[in-house]
Every structure is written in structure tokens, then in C-alpha cells.
Amino acid sequence: MENGLSDSGYYPAEHFISKSMDSDAPIFLTGFARSGTTWVNHLFRDYFDAGFVNEGQFIVSFGLRLHRYENLKEPGNHRRLMRDLAKDGFFSILRRNYAIEIDWGRVGAVKPEFSAIVREVLRQIAEGLGKHRIGSKYPVFGRYMDLMNTLFPDCRVVHVIRDGRDCALSHKRMTWGHQNTYSAAVHWRDYLRTLRSSAEKLPGRYLEIRYEDLLLNPESTMRILEYFVTGTHQDSATRHFLEKRGALKPNKVGQWRRAMSPHSQAVFEAVAGDTLREYGYALVGEKHYLSSLSRAGCIIHDRVSREAWYWARKIVPKIPEHKPWS
Fold first, then answer.
1. Are 59 and 118 in contact (CB under 8 A)?
2. Cα–Cα distance for residue pair 109/116, rounded to 1 Å
3. What's the pTM?
4. pLDDT tens sequence across 210-267
5. How far apart are CA 23 and CA 232, in angstroms?
6. Count of alpha carbons within 13 Å of 46, Cβ hemisphere only?
7. CATH class of this structure's domain 21-53+129-315
8. Domain boundaries, the chain
């Protein structure tokens, strides 16, 4: 065991990798919020010719309500879907943050199926970024992996995992994050359990990588990621990545040991200790089980706090995502 990590129970990445990859299949990058998915998304763009942008929420939101559009082969239904998609807030963000304008004429010309429409949108995004590999990053993908697999049966999934205690600390610094240790532990535990259960339906198309491994063991972890993405052992992306390894910040690993109180550590371990162990994270060995009343109080506190921050940022858009005093 080193730097708070152990290998007990953690699936080796090769367990998930197929020997044959379709280079045109979309790759979906996901992970519990504050697990490092944004950083890994940058790695995909910088080293794997991937044209991913953040938070492809339209895929999930429209995928969940496709039934409203019925048969897309009917021109009227197809037009309704296209009209509603074009109005989605994701595309205004795409224009503002990436200066990418979707050619809806091209999108409308593809096969009248939602998956084909999404692929064309992702293809245009990649083109706009000067890249070739298509996909998207969104933490919520992990909660709806069965839906994603149904819509894209050839997709591949990269799941970035981070020690839930560090995630919990990071959440408290965000206006939208879980506001207490108990709530963060419950959501982190349930997220990982749900995603691993769904991953059983993606044999050879699912990869787990730990955020900590990318920082502490960058060469071996990046080599596994490169093989998953490219299907080759050329290691050119890995070598390029290692040339800039000085920018890595290993001090971000295990911050919970310094910044989380012993009581909070014990609360987290009582809720999610088994999941921490399953993913190879060291345990302190102390557990504090909250009473039913305390658990209810934590749930209410979390929901009310997040709702209050949501409306505060709606009313005062200049309020940053990071709490000013964090």
C-alpha cells in the first residue's frame, strides 16, 4: 500500500479492454463529479485527437424523453426533435465557449434515428475542434449507462474514479456540490455501484482508471488508457504525456488525510467503507454511524443548501461555482 492506495479488490484495467476497437465508436467519459473528469477530458483532446467538450447533457435529457417524439421516420416527429434540439442550452454554450455552430442541415440529412443524430452532432463538434475522435464528457452519463448502451451499442466508456473522501472535500467547495460528508458518501457509493453494475453489459468496452493512478503512476496508467483508446501499443501519446509530467500535482492525492476531520472520516467510512475497499482505497478503520434523525438532517441540509445556491446563482449570475471563501 502506498500513498493511501491499495490494490485489494480493484479490477486491473486490462480486465475491461477488448482486443478489437471500432475507431468510429463514440467514447463517453464519465465519473462522479469532482473526480477529475475535466482534466482527463483535456488529456483526450491533447493526446488522443478527441473532440470532446464538457457536459453533453443533451444526450441524456433527450434520450430519456425520446418517447415523446414517437416514430422519427415520420417527418413531423423528426422536425419536432430537430427544432427542440437546436433550442437546447447546450448549443448556446457550444457557440459561446467553443465558437462552434452546428450545421443543422447536415444533422437533418442523417438517418432519422436519435443515435445517428447525436453522432453527427459529435462529429461536427470534433471537426470544429480540429479533431477526429468523437465522444463526450458528462458525469451524469454514469447514472444512465444502460440508456447510453442502448442508444450506442458500440460505444466505449472511460470511468474516472477518485477517492470519495477527496471528492467530498471538493464538493463542499462548490456551490452545486454535496454540502455534507454523509450526503457525499451516499451519492459517491451509489454512483460507483450503479455504474459498475451497468458496466457488466459493456464487455470489452469499459475502462476504469483512478485519478490517483494518473498522478502517482502516470506511465503505466496512461499506457493502459492509450491502448483502450487506440487499440495499439505504440505508446506515442504516453511518451508525449510523460514529457509534460512536471505539470502533474500529486499533492492532490489523499487531501482528506489533512483536511477532513477524524469524525468526518469515520462518517464517510461507515457509509462507503466497503466501496472504498473495493476500489483499492485504504481505510482508517474508524466508523461512526449516524442516527436516523442525523441522517435525515444531513439529507435535508444537502438538498436545501444546494437549492438555495442554485437560485442564488440564477438571481446573481456573477456568483462563481467555487465558493468565494473556499
1. yes
2. 10
3. 0.91
4. 999 999 999 999 999 999 999 888 889 999 989 877 778 888 999 999 999 999 999 9
5. 11
6. 14
7. alpha beta
8. 21-53+129-315
